[in-house]
């Protein structure tokens, strides 16, 4: 059986003299976008790299299809991938990356460059810290809201059946049942509209993982710095003990000295010389790691500040639009219930 894959057409357009000219056009699979993002994570550890949309539908309410080949899901993922590229293109540093340019313009050379860079040899400790945990059976608000709306469909059916056996108040009951049915069916459109805003919020849910990756990289650099300082202090202590002939703490070397006697002066001088060379190398390494850590913090802090401005702007726009949608929904629901109340009241007057 043939394996079905979804490919996305990428078109690069150049705007010159008020005209749009198509410069490049090629097809990419989702896995190729993953390659690009992994490369960016490795070579720009201080940057909050934009996230990719879901490869498989994981955050869905039960009415939406979780099939990867579902047209609606494919379209939503296409929008997410396009947004991923736009985020990179608008980033002041990532937009100038050579690999990103090749990703947009060339098909085969793109693969050869990835093989050359061998970016998969990333710090395995980052992957060990990258485990995420997810609740297997989350309590979804959308499912509960869906149930609340749909139960009103039962009321609509009751009113409709009731109207069939009533003569004088049948019209009022029929109209009341109709408005209950309209209310029950409105949840489908509501949740579909909410899915659009959910995609925007999910992007920043995945952004949180990118932000954690920057923090984890800093923690690993700090750990390496502490280990280098500890190793340097240990070598200095060994050198001092050899020079003075005293052992401060219990050690295997001190025990062997007591068992087999002291080293000859020549042996001691040779060991001291080796330790002094190692101490010089350790001091240079410690200095280098200190500078590297400070540079990382400086660059990471600048990019996090840029990310915070972007986040505040995007989430503000999304939440305002969501609030407008909720207000419109509440107005429709309020109108439906007022009509239901009017027709049901006219029906009850006959009782």
Question: Would you give an account of this structure?
Answer:
Strand 1 and strand 2 form a beta hairpin. This protein is elongated. The chain folds into 2 domains: 122 residues, 2-Layer Sandwich (PX Domain); 226 residues, Substrate Binding Domain Of Dnak, Chain:A, Domain 2 (Up-down Bundle). It has a two-stranded antiparallel sheet. About 2% of the residues have low confidence. It is mainly alpha-helical and 351 residues long.
- CATH level 1 class label of the largest domain: Mainly Alpha
What count of helical segments does DSSP give?
A: 9
Largest sheet: 2 strands, antiparallel
Q: Biggest sheet: strands side by side, in what order?
A: 1-2
What's the structural blueprint in terms of helices and strands?
Elements: E1 7-16, E2 19-29, H1 30-43, H2 71-90, H3 98-105, H4 108-117, H5 124-128, H6 141-165, H7 170-244, H8 252-260, H9 265-348
Antiparallel strand pairs: 1-2
Helix pairs in contact: 6-7, 7-9
Name the features.
single chain; Substrate Binding Domain Of Dnak, Chain:A, Domain 2; 9 helices; 2 strands; 6% strand; elongated
Question: How is this structure best summarized?
Answer:
By secondary structure, the chain is mainly α.
């Amino acid at each position: 059986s043939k394996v079905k894959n979804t490919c996305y057409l990428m078109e690069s357009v150049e705007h010159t003299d008020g005209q749009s000219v198509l410069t490049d056009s090629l097809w990419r699979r989702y896995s190729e976008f993953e390659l690009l993002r992994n490369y960016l994570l490795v070579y720009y550890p201080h940057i909050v790299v934009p996230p990719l949309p879901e490869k498989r539908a994981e955050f869905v309410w039960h009415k939406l299809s979780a099939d990867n080949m579902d047209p609606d899901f494919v379209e939503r993922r296409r929008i997410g991938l396009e947004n991923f590229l736009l985020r990179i293109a608008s980033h002041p540093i990532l937009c100038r990356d050579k690999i990103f340019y090749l990703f947009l313009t060339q098909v085969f050379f793109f693969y050869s460059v990835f093989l050359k860079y061998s970016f998969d040899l990333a710090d395995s400790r980052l992957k060990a810290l990258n485990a995420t945990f997810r609740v297997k059976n989350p309590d979804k608000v959308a499912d509960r809201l869906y149930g609340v709306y749909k139960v009103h469909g039962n009321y609509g059916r009751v009113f409709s059946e009731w109207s069939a056996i009533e003569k004088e108040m049948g019209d009022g009951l029929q109209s009341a049942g109709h408005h209950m049915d309209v209310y029950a069916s409105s949840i489908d459109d509501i949740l579909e509209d909410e899915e659009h805003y959910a995609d925007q919020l999910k992007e920043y849910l995945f952004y949180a993982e990118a932000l954690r990756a920057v923090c984890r990289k800093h923690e690993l650099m700090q750990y390496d710095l502490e280990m280098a300082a500890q190793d340097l202090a240990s070598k200095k202590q060994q050198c001092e003990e050899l020079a003075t002939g005293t052992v401060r703490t219990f050690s295997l070397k001190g025990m062997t000295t007591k068992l087999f006697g002291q080293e000859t002066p020549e042996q001691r001088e040779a060991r001291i010389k080796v330790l002094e060379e190692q101490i010089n190398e350790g001091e240079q390494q410690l200095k280098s790691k200190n500078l590297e850590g400070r540079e990382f913090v400086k660059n990471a802090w600048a990019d996090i500040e840029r990310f915070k401005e972007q986040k505040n702007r995007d989430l503000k726009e999304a939440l305002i639009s969501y609030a407008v949608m909720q207000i419109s929904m509440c107005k429709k629901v309020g109108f439906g219930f007022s009509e239901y109340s009017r027709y049901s009241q006219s029906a009850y007057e006959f009782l």
